[in-house]
Amino acid sequence: MPFHTRLLGKDRMALFSFIHSLNTNFGTSIFEPVAKALASANFQKTLSQQIAGTQISSEAHNVIQNIMDNLATANSNPNKAREIKAIRSVCRKGEMRNVKLTKVDVKLFGRDGTIYLFDIKTAKPNAGGFKEFKRTLLEWTAAALADDPKANIQTLIAIPYNPYDPEPYNRWTMRGMLDLQNELKVAEEFWDFLGGDGAYKQLLDIFERVGIALRPEIDDYFARYNR
Fold first, then answer.
1. Where do runs of H (alpha helix) occur along the chain?
2. Angle made by CA atoms 26, 118, 85, in degrees to the nearest 5
3. How far is it, in rounded angstroms, from Cα 106 to Cα 202?
4. What confidence tens digit (pLDDT) does each residue in 153-163 have?
5. What is the C-alpha to C-alpha distance for residues 91 and 6, in angstroms, rounded to an integer?
6. What values do phi and psi take at 108, rounded to 5?
7. Kind and range of the H or E element at 120?
8. Which domains, from first to last, does the chain contain?
């Protein structure tokens, strides 16, 4: 990026590249394994990068499309319980079609038998993005129920931190697409759900302590760009 480098300098561009790399890799390299480790004390089993299922019935495809159409035209409001019930009723009806779905970032098995499938999003999604997220959650539900129609399944979007902090997370962009109470967990909601009350604040403290310990090494790395 020769124009950027000449305008900002090598040191600032090195910092930019470093932060961009962190943002890109935090999801799979940091957030997923931390989520698994944190949840292991409170859930029966924790997994990452899982397949929700390999088949969805043709009738379930139709139900999902109807849900998406009604939400897009504001003919109905998102309602997780109602949507799961509708998909469950047809999860094995019609032709069973093979599908290749987005992988589940974190899969949790609750002690009460509930299965939680999380899609972790690290960027600030826009309104259009949430349409695709919603479809993913519905397809995960259909695929999981095709394997076990009696499964107690919950599919959710997780946003590990609030990019608007200290302002509240801006939820209006997804209000007409997601059931906010049952399909979205942001920052403290997500981490405390996994690890219990106070887990989010403890995690931030840990990251701060690691940052302090690594600061000399990080400073030495960037010092080479000042020479």
1. 2-8, 10-25, 32-39, 58-72, 80-89, 127-147, 180-183, 188-195, 199-223
2. 165
3. 20
4. 999 999 999 88
5. 58
6. -120, 140
7. strand 115-120
8. 47-188 (3.40.1560)
39: its two tokens? 């949840």
Contact yes or no for 204/165 (Cβ under 8 A): no
| AA identity, residue 85 | K
| Token pair recorded at residue 211 | 């940052």
Tell me the C-alpha distance between 61 and 77, whole Å.
19
Residues in the chain: 227
**Pairing assessment for the beta strands 104-109 and 115-120 based on DSSP bridges:** antiparallel
pLDDT at position 158:
95
pLDDT at 96 > cutoff 70: yes
Distances from the Cα of 12 to the Cαs of 7, 21, 159, 219, in angstroms?
A: 10, 14, 28, 13
Phi, psi (rounded to 5 degrees) for 158: -120, 130
pTM of the complete model = 0.89
Q: Are residues 92 and 149 in contact, defined by beta-carbon separation less than 8 angstroms?
A: yes
Mean pLDDT, rounded, for 53-81: 95
Q: Which two tokens stand for residue 103?
A: 């992988």
DSSP 8-class letter at 103: P
| Residue 145 token pair | 């129920």
CA distance 157 to 160: 10
Q: For position 172, what pLDDT does the model report?
A: 64
**3-class state of residue 27 by DSSP:** helix
